[in-house]
From TrEMBL:
Gene behind this protein: LOC107594088
Pfam families on file: Zona_pellucida, ZP-N
Lineage of source species: Eukaryota, Metazoa, Chordata, Craniata, Vertebrata
Subcellular localization, as worded in the UniProt entry: Secreted, Extracellular space, Extracellular matrix; Zona pellucida; Cell membrane
Region (Disordered): 25-47
Protein name as annotated: Zona pellucida sperm-binding protein 3
Keywords linked to the UniProt accession: Cell membrane, Cleavage on pair of basic residues, Disulfide bond, Extracellular matrix, Glycoprotein, Membrane, Secreted, Signal, Transmembrane, Transmembrane helix
GO terms classed as biological process: binding of sperm to zona pellucida; egg coat formation; positive regulation of acrosome reaction
Composition-biased stretches (Polar residues): 26-40
Organism: Sinocyclocheilus grahami (Dianchi golden-line fish)
Domain notes: The ZP domain is involved in the polymerization of the ZP proteins to form the zona pellucida.
Length: 435
C-alpha cells in the first residue's frame, strides 16, 4: 500500500512537470513572449522550464524563431536614435560668392614687323646688279640659294665671306617689264624667294617673299654740238629729244571719264581698263592689245597665271568662263578700252592680281587684220571696229608667222604695259531671313 502511494506521487510529479514544460514551450513561441521582459522574476521560470528541453527541441525552437522573422524585425525610431548616438545640430550658411579679381590694364602694343634692308640694287647703263643677304629676313636664318630667283634667273654668284648672293643680268633679261611714264623708262624685276622644307621634315620657318626691283632711266637726254658758234647768237648749241613710244594701262571709272583712284574690287565687279599710247609730234597711231596675262606677282611667268587675251587680240575670257568681259567700241585711235570681270585665283595666297599686256601700235591709216585686232565673244566673235572678218581665226591660230608680219604701211611698234596690284575681295556675306 505504501509502495503504491509512492508510485502514484511520482507519476503525479512527472505529469505536472510535463504540463509545465508544455506551457512554457507554448509561451515562448507566442509573439508576446518574444519581447524583452523588464523584471527578473519573469526570466527565472523561463530559464528553469527550458532546462528540461532536449537539444533537439532547442534546435527546433531556434528554427521556428528564425522562420518567423525575429532577427529581421525592424527597429523603432527610439532604437535607431540610441544606435546612432547624439545628433549634432545642423550648421548651414549661404555660400560666400568669391570676389572676382580684376585684371590690371596692361600697356600692350603689337610689335609690327620691321622691313629688313637686305637687298641692294645698282642699275647700270644696260645691266642691273642685285645683292641679297642670305639673312634675307634679318632673323638669323640663312636662306638657300636654290630657293631664290629673279624673274626665273638663278643666282649668278655668291660672296661667302659676306654671305651675299649676287644677280647680274641685262635689263631685258629675267622677264623684266618695261613701263614708261612721261619722263622715265622703268624696268621692273620680281625677286622671288620660295622657302624649302628642312631636310627630313615637311616644315619651314620662313615665309614666301616677293621683292619688287625697279631701275629708272630718264626718257629725254640732251645732245649738244659746238661745231658752229656764231657771235651774234648768245646760245648756239642744238638740243633735241630722243623719244620712245609709251604704252600704258589704267584703271578707269565706270563712265570712263577719269582714272579710278582705288584699286579695290569685289568678286563680280567689272574692271574698266584703258590701253593707250602717248604720241608726241608723231603721225596718228592706232593701238591694239595683242595679249594679256594675270598673275599674283609682278613676274609674268609666275604660276598660277591666267591668259585672258591671246591669239593677237582675241578676248577669250568670255568664251572660257561665260563672263561679260569684252572690248569697248573704239572712240579714239590711240587708245582701246576693255572690261574684265573680276576674279580670284583658286587657293591663292593673295588677293592681288598683276596684269601684263603686249600692246601694239600701227599707223591709224592701216586697216585691222588677223594680227592686229580687238575681238570679243558673245555667241560668236565680233570686232570692236566693225571688221568682224578679222576675228574669224580666234578659234584657231591667227597668223602663220607668230604675228610678226609687217602691217599695211610697213610700220609697227610694240611694247609691254603693266597694271597692278589690283585687289579683289569676296563680297560680304549677309543672311536673309524668311517668314
Amino acid at each position: 500500500m505504501g509502495l503504491l502511494q509512492g508510485v502514484f506521487v511520482l507519476v503525479v510529479m512527472v505529469v505536472f512537470d510535463l504540463r509545465s514544460a508544455w506551457g512554457s514551450l507554448r509561451h515562448s513561441q507566442s509573439p508576446s513572449s518574444m519581447k524583452p521582459q523588464s523584471g527578473p522574476a519573469s526570466r527565472g521560470p523561463a530559464l528553469s522550464s527550458q532546462a528540461f528541453l532536449s537539444p533537439l527541441q532547442k534546435a527546433s525552437q531556434f528554427q521556428s524563431l528564425d522562420s518567423r522573422g525575429f532577427a529581421q524585425e525592424p527597429l523603432g525610431f527610439q532604437e535607431k536614435q540610441l544606435l546612432q548616438g547624439p545628433v549634432k545640430p545642423l550648421d548651414w550658411r549661404f555660400p560666400i560668392v568669391p570676389e572676382v579679381r580684376r585684371e590690371l590694364a596692361v600697356d600692350f602694343q603689337l610689335r609690327q614687323p620691321v622691313t629688313p634692308s637686305s637687298v641692294a640694287v645698282q642699275c647700270g647703263e644696260n645691266r642691273v646688279l642685285v645683292e641679297v643677304k642670305k639673312d634675307l629676313f634679318s632673323n638669323g636664318q640663312l636662306i638657300q640659294p636654290s630657293g631664290l630667283s629673279m624673274g626665273g634667273c638663278p643666282v649668278f654668284g655668291e660672296d661667302s665671306a659676306s654671305r651675299v648672293l649676287i644677280f647680274e643680268y641685262e635689263l631685258q633679261d629675267c622677264n623684266s617689264v618695261l613701263m614708261m611714264t612721261e619722263d622715265e623708262l622703268v624696268y621692273t624685276f620680281a625677286l622671288t624667294y620660295t622657302p624649302e622644307a628642312f631636310a627630313g621634315t615637311p616644315i619651314t620657318r620662313a615665309d614666301r617673299a616677293v621683292v619688287g626691283i625697279q631701275c629708272h632711266y630718264q626718257r629725254f637726254y640732251n645732245v649738244s654740238s659746238d661745231a658752229l658758234r656764231p657771235t651774234w647768237v648768245p646760245y648756239a648749241s642744238t638740243e633735241f629729244g630722243v623719244e620712245v613710244l609709251m604704252f600704258s594701262l589704267k584703271l578707269m571709272m565706270d563712265d570712263w571719264s577719269y582714272q579710278r583712284p582705288s584699286n579695290l574690287y569685289f568678286l563680280g565687279d567689272v574692271i574698266n581698263i584703258e590701253a593707250s599710247v602717248k604720241v608726241y609730234n608723231h603721225v596718228p597711231l592706232r593701238v591694239f592689245v595683242d595679249s594679256c596675262v594675270a598673275t599674283q606677282v609682278p613676274d609674268v611667268n609666275a604660276h598660277p597665271r591666267y591668259s585672258f587675251i591671246e591669239n593677237h587680240g582675241c578676248f577669250v575670257d568670255a568664251k572660257a568662263t561665260a563672263s561679260s568681259s569684252r572690248f569697248m567700241p573704239r572712240t579714239q585711235e590711240d587708245q582701246i578700252r576693255f572690261q574684265l570681270e573680276s576674279f580670284m585665283f583658286q587657293g591663292g595666297y593673295s588677293p592681288s592680281i598683276y596684269i601684263t599686256c603686249i600692246v601694239k601700235a600701227t599707223l591709224a591709216s592701216a586697216p585691222s587684220d588677223a594680227l592686229r585686232k580687238s575681238c570679243s565673244f558673245s555667241n560668236g566673235w565680233f570686232a570692236a571696229d566693225g571688221n568682224h572678218q578679222a576675228c574669224g581665226c580666234c578659234d584657231s591660230t591667227c597668223g602663220p608667222d607668230g604675228g610678226n608680219a609687217v602691217p599695211f604701211g610697213g610700220v609697227q611698234w610694240e611694247g609691254n604695259a603693266s597694271l597692278g596690284p589690283v585687289m579683289v575681295q569676296e563680297r560680304p556675306k549677309t543672311l536673309v531671313g524668311f517668314q
